[in-house]
């Protein structure tokens, strides 16, 4: 796209939303043109960005891509808006139900969409390592332990489920455990256990910036693409396009 990509941040008042807004302000490839939260905002404009509540979604200005880190309750309305406006959607919202996953899948026929349970480079590498370990450790127990802050609503985390899919794709049967404690940003331990030995693969996120930077990077590259269902690797691999 020529010029700055216009981004709508959905879930703007949340932990991820605020991180996205802070990091987007330093980027030259995009600008935030609207910030949407669940509840109506106390302040209508902050640093030049207009704020909206979920009930005011229809009135947001034109945008090229929505970056969504909110809760499942707001997802359907955002997806409908992106379809109506022919805008791209990047979503990291976890805990979507089957109907929402199906709606996202079919939206790929009309607009570019990208959902990922985790936007960090480290977890992408962990996913690859888990698949490789599961492929050779046939018959070993596979356990995934995820830890997050006490205000996280869904369990197991979306990332744990993605890691489990990587293991299951190679024949393992993953079991999950979830810990909710303090202010943990996100930790995932994938453990392969046999008799007398154990392999542990761990990723620890200590800062939300890794997820927000990944999502903004992807959003700037997804806007203006052909309709389709994209993965992070697809967008990065066509970086020069
Ligand atoms: N994929 C990844 O890499 C990744 C990384 C971290 C987190 N996440 C996921 O991102 C999501 C947000 O996490 P968080 O920690 O930022 O959560 P959070 O702090 O609880 O923030 C949630 C945000 O969603 C808004 N919201 C709630 N209902 C809404 C609705 N109906 N319409 C529009 N907005 C609505 C909230 O607005 P109000 O404050 O007004 O209610 C708030 O801005 C979660 O699903 C989490 O699992 C994904």
UniProtKB/TrEMBL annotation:
Main location group: cytoplasm
The record's keywords, sorted A to Z, are: Amino-acid biosynthesis, Cytoplasm, Diaminopimelate biosynthesis, Lysine biosynthesis, NAD, NADP, Oxidoreductase
Reaction(s) catalysed (UniProt annotation): (S)-2,3,4,5-tetrahydrodipicolinate + NADP(+) + H2O = (2S,4S)-4-hydroxy-2,3,4,5-tetrahydrodipicolinate + NADPH + H(+); (S)-2,3,4,5-tetrahydrodipicolinate + NAD(+) + H2O = (2S,4S)-4-hydroxy-2,3,4,5-tetrahydrodipicolinate + NADH + H(+)
Kindly identify the residues recorded as the active site.
Answer: 148, 152
Q: Does the keyword Signal apply?
A: no
Q: Where does NAD(+) bind?
A: 11-16, 92-94, 116-119
According to its UniProt entry, the protein's GO biological process terms are: diaminopimelate biosynthetic process; lysine biosynthetic process via diaminopimelate
In which compartments does the protein localize? Cytoplasm
Alphabetized InterPro entries for the sequence: DapB_C (IPR022663), DapB_N (IPR000846), DapB_N_CS (IPR022664), DHDPR_bac (IPR023940), NAD(P)-bd_dom_sf (IPR036291)
Annotated residues that bind (S)-2,3,4,5-tetrahydrodipicolinate are located at: 149, 158-159
What positions does the domain Dihydrodipicolinate reductase N-terminal occupy?
5-119
Q: Which residues form the Dihydrodipicolinate reductase C-terminal domain?
A: 122-236
Tell me which residues bind NADP(+).
39
Which terms in the Gene Ontology molecular function aspect does this entry carry? 4-hydroxy-tetrahydrodipicolinate reductase; NAD binding; NADP binding; oxidoreductase activity, acting on CH or CH2 groups, NAD or NADP as acceptor
**What EC number(s) does this enzyme carry?**
1.17.1.8
* UniProt cross-references to PANTHER family, sorted A to Z: 4-HYDROXY-TETRAHYDRODIPICOLINATE REDUCTASE 1, CHLOROPLASTIC-RELATED, DIHYDRODIPICOLINATE REDUCTASE
The entry's function note states: Catalyzes the conversion of 4-hydroxy-tetrahydrodipicolinate (HTPA) to tetrahydrodipicolinate.
The record's similarity note reads: Belongs to the DapB family.
Q: What is this protein called?
A: 4-hydroxy-tetrahydrodipicolinate reductase
Supply the source organism for this entry: Luteimonas chenhongjianii
Traced from the root, the source organism's taxonomic lineage reads: Bacteria, Pseudomonadati, Pseudomonadota, Gammaproteobacteria, Lysobacterales
């Amino acid at each position: 796209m020529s010029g700055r990509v216009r981004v709508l941040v959905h879930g703007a008042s949340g932990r991820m939303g605020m991180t996205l807004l802070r990091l987007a302000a330093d980027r030259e490839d995009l600008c935030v043109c609207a910030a949407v939260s669940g509840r109506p905002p106390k302040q209508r404009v902050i640093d030049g960005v207009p704020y909206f509540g979920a009930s005011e979604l229809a009135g947001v200005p034109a945008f090229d891509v929505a970056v969504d880190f909110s809760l499942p309750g707001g997802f359907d309305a955002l997806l409908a808006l992106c379809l109506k406006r022919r805008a791209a959607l990047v979503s990291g919202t976890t805990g979507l139900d089957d109907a929402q996953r199906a709606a996202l899948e079919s939206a790929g026929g009309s607009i570019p969409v990208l959902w990922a349970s985790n936007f960090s480079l480290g977890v992408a590498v962990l996913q690859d390592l888990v698949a490789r370990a599961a492929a050779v450790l046939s018959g070993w127990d596979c356990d995934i332990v995820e830890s997050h802050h006490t205000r996280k609503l869904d369990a197991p985390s979306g990332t744990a489920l993605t890691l489990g899919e990587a293991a299951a794709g190679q024949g393992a049967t993953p079991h999950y455990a979830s810990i909710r404690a303090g202010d943990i940003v996100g930790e995932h331990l994938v453990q392969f256990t046999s008799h007398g030995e154990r392999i542990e693969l761990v990723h620890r996120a200590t800062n939300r910036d890794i997820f927000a930077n990944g999502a903004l990077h992807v959003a700037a590259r997804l806007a203006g693409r052909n309709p389709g269902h994209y993965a992070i690797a697809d967008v990065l691999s066509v970086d020069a396009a």
